[in-house]
Design brief:
Layout: E1 2-3, E2 9-13, E3 18-23, E4 28-34, E5 40-45, E6 53-58, E7 62-67, E8 72-78, E9 84-89, E10 95-100, E11 104-109, E12 114-120, E13 125-130, E14 154-159, E15 164-168, E16 174-177, E17 188-194, E18 199-204, E19 208-213, E20 219-225, E21 231-237, E22 243-248, E23 253-254
Antiparallel strand pairs: 1-2, 2-3, 3-4, 5-6, 6-7, 7-8, 9-10, 10-11, 11-12, 13-14, 14-15, 15-16, 17-18, 18-19, 19-20, 21-22, 22-23
Protein name: U3 small nucleolar RNA-associated protein
């Protein structure tokens, strides 16, 4: 699902191949589209709501652009060979970034309906997006060529390796690959970009939410434990018993 820039509409994609747009305040369906050949796996509103459009991806590998004014499919973008899991528009709405389980990131020219750049990620991807223009990821960060990465238009992605990776939108060069935590075996299921706090929230396969600070080279600042599986034992430890160590049926301890 996705919510538009005005916070008045929400789009949902479902397993019955349909895409629906809903009025949030009224609670009723405003649009219903059908065209994907399978499960609708991702939805993203165009940033310019003066000409309202919605992009959706499915497990048929296609991306469809729906015109909310005419209530028709405006274009079908074919470039992925597996399920599409991530979509995001540039702020000006001219380009669309997509990623999927075929291990590539495509950058599309919306008007020309063609791929202008393909970035091989070499991992099955579950999420992709763009950082706010001018944000960069660290004023003190430099890429391999020694050029400051601050001010670049940066693409983020996450997938089966369980780490966030940042890419240069213009060249496709990898700018930063997050170091995976010791003993961590999770994969990334989704990434949510919180623009106001400049944080990336990763939803993991072991049902946790990890918060990473974009301005500090993706330093983890918070973690929400969503599910611990079976808890077999626990103890208070440390000065003043301020910490709790938990043993579960997983092969590691949680502090």
């Amino acid at each position: 699902m996705d919510i538009d820039m005005t916070s008045t509409l929400v789009a949902t994609g479902s397993a019955d191949s349909t895409v629906k747009v809903w009025d949030i305040d009224g609670g009723y369906c405003t649009h219903s589209f059908k065209g994907h050949g399978g499960v609708v796996s991702v939805a993203k509103f165009h940033p310019n709501m003066k000409h309202p459009r919605l992009a959706t991806g499915g497990d048929d590998g296609t991306i469809r652009i729906w015109n909310l004014s005419t209530r028709k499919c405006e274009s079908v973008l074919e470039g992925h060979v597996s399920i599409v899991r991530g979509l995001d528009f540039t702020t000006d709405g001219r380009h669309l970034v997509s990623a999927g389980r075929d291990s590539v990131i495509h950058i599309w020219d919306i008007k020309a309906r063609r791929i202008v750049r393909t970035i091989p990620a070499y991992e099955s991807l579950e999420s992709v997006g763009l950082l706010a223009p001018g944000t960069g990821f660290d004023k003190d960060a430099y890429d391999a060529a020694g050029k400051s990465a601050y001010g670049k238009l940066v693409v983020y992605s996450g997938g089966e390796n369980g780490v966030i990776r940042l890419w240069d939108f213009d060249t496709g060069k990898e700018l930063l690959r997050q170091n995976k935590e010791v003993n961590a075996k999770h994969a990334c299921f989704d990434i949510i970009y919180a623009r106001n706090s400049q944080q990336l929230l990763m939803v993991t396969s072991d049902q946790n939410i990890l918060f990473y600070d974009v301005t500090r080279q993706l330093t983890k600042v918070r973690q929400i434990a969503g599910y611990n599986e079976e808890i077999t034992d626990l103890r208070y430890i440390g000065p003043g018993n301020r910490h709790l160590i938990v043993a579960t049926n997983a092969e590691y301890l949680k502090l």
